[in-house]
Amino acid sequence: MDLLIKNGTIITAAETFVGDIAVNDGKIVCVGMNLPVVAEKVVDAAGKLVLPGAIDAHTHLAMPFGGTVSADSYLAGTRAAACGGVTTVFDYPMQRKGFGIIETVEARKAICDVEACVDYAFHCCITDLNDGAILDEFEAAVNYGITSFKCFLVYKKEGMMVDDGTLVKVLLKAKEVGAMTNIHAENPDLIDLYTAQFLKEGKTSAWYHYMSRPEFVEAEADKRAVHWASSVEASLYLVHMADKEGLEAAVAAKREGHDIYIETCPQYLEFTCDVYKREDGRNFVCSPPMKGEESKEALWKAIRQGAIDTVATDHCPFQSYEKDWGKDDFTKIPNGCAGVENLYPYMLSAANEGKITFNRAVELCSTNPAKLFGCKQKGSLAVGKDADIVIYDPYKDVTISVSNMHSDYDHTIWEGKKIHGYPVQTYVRGKLVYDNGDFVGTPGFGEFVKREPRK
Ligand code: URP
Ligand code: ZN
Ligand code: ZN
Ligand code: ZN
To answer: Is 184 in the pocket of ligand 1 (CB under 6 A)?
Structure first.
């Protein structure tokens, strides 16, 4: 055997038990008590937790946006991922008018081939149907391993927004080929209305980013997406949900039996819109914005009740000088924040503090995204799966600072956050990529995850 991890407390979405895990050729080959195995490398994990690597189902690496490009390249973003216990990242390539899905994805895959330090998959954003040619390409995309597509109901001026007719066409075609449709839901017309009004009134601080897209602006679009998906009986995955009203509508539709899934992000579980009143409020500008305390509480409640399916990051950092473009005009702040390295430590810390169980943290950050998005070799510590493994020390405390993170950005909204318990090792397909504070992986080691269609 290549690797034996002994005496750890093994945590899966369903079980907790003390045991050993044997790894050979990148796969988990045996799980049990006192395995009689000889291995090249033996790691004693006594007193530690052994978890499946996290899957961050929502990142934007090297993404052209807001007049610039997000600060983390595929190399920096996946290096940071490894150091936060994330063994697979999903990125969002952006199909543009005149371009196909597979060529869009292949351009990004070519970069990942040399840069990715952990495994990677793609949801493809659809911005233009190219007179229907894009819909005809869905089946080929699914066969290629792209089994999810995304539509933005906002970002008109960025040329990313789709109308309801396009959304329904995508939902129907995705259903036909066994794909999931991911939606960014906010109402663009209301955002434009409020934005114009605030600018006219000279209300230009980061607070007005929130005020131009408050709870009901997200709720309307959440409900619209739920309505269309339910009406045509298609699968829907609402990304980065942040508001209580929309959440409740989505949960209700789920409970009625519709194929609807909900993602939220650590930033919505930690912060409220009050951050936009801070002097550095622009650094917290992302869309949708953080909401009020009631929404934050509702998200935690839904997490505890099992109504939220995944927690992912929407990792999309920008440098301070770029955030500063919007010092005197919130519309000029590039939207997005850092998070990929903080996802698993944050959710596991919540488990360590008793807010949720460790099993639930694993389910939200690993097992569910693997299942929902067809990564059949990922998301659990079962025999035959990829040996994507995190060893976690429940007693190691870390205070997050930009100086101990592994991305390329120069500031983080998580600065000063105390994390109770921390990953000490990350393995991707049996290879050690993170060891006690240090990145030890190799750019280009990460592999494309060819995903399965939905049944
Ligand atoms: O503010 C954000 N979230 N930026 C990234 C693009 C998106 O909306 O997901
Ligand atoms: Zn979004
Ligand atoms: Zn996003
Ligand atoms: Zn502690």
So the answer is: yes
Asked whether 60 lines ligand 1 (CB < 6 A), one says yes
58 C-alpha to ligand 3 centroid (Å): 6
From 159, 173, 184, select the one nearest 97 (Cα to Cα). Answer: 159
Residue 78 and residue 213 in one domain: yes
Please give the backbone phi and psi of residue 25, each rounded to the nearest 5 degrees, phi first. 50, 40
pTM above 0.80, yes or no: yes
421 CA → ligand 4 middle, Å? 6
- Residue 91, domain member (yes or no): yes
Same domain flag for 183 and 317? yes
Q: What is the dihedral of CA 292, 293, 297, 303, to 10 degrees?
A: 50
Q: Which two tokens stand for residue 110?
A: 């070519």
Q: What is the ipTM of this complex?
A: 0.94
In a domain, 455, yes or no: no
Decide: 59 in ligand 1 pocket, CB within 6 A.
Answer: no
User: Which residues have C-beta under 5 Å from ligand 2, the single-atom ion?
Assistant: 184
Ligand 1 atom nearest residue 154's Cα: 8
Q: Mean pLDDT by 10-residue block, N- to C-terminus, for the chain (455 residues)?
A: 98 98 98 97 98 98 96 98 99 98 98 98 98 98 98 96 98 98 98 98 98 98 98 98 98 98 99 98 98 98 98 98 98 98 98 98 98 98 98 98 97 98 98 98 98 94
Hey, what are 452's tokens?
A: 């399965």
> At 345, which CATH number?
3.20.20.140
- Check if 335 has its Cβ closer than 6 Å to any atom of ligand 1: yes
Q: Where are the alpha helices (DSSP H) in 184-291?
A: 188-200, 207-212, 215-231, 244-255, 266-270
- Residue 136 shares a structural domain with residue 32: no
